[in-house]
Amino acid sequence: MTQKITDDEIRSLVIERLKSISDESSLMIGGDKKLSKSDMIKSVQNGDDTGKKIIDMQMTYLRDLASGKLMENIMSL
Q1: What domain of life does the UniProt record list for this protein's source (predicted)?
Q2: Are 51 and 57 in contact, with CB atoms under 8 Å apart?
Q3: pLDDT, position 67
Q4: CA-CA distances (angstroms) from residue 51 to 8, 58, 69?
Q5: Which of 34, 37, 40, 68 is most buried, with most CB under 10 Å away?
Q6: Domain segments of the chain: what residues?
Q7: Cβ-contact 59, 10 below 8 angstroms
């Protein structure tokens, strides 16, 4: 039996991952303004468009890591 992960669980996972990065880390999405670590966390918590993009990026990374696709891409460099 496969358990479905809820949106709240995914949001919590992404927030915890963001909390673990350096306080000096920042992100730019699509040439918009530069986001600090706290800005990223707030966007994910609020569920705004930027937060949704951050969640999508994090989940894509985790899926690629779990499937081995990330390692394949690294090894092909």
Answers
A1: Bacteria
A2: no
A3: 92
A4: 13, 11, 24
A5: 40
A6: 7-75
A7: yes
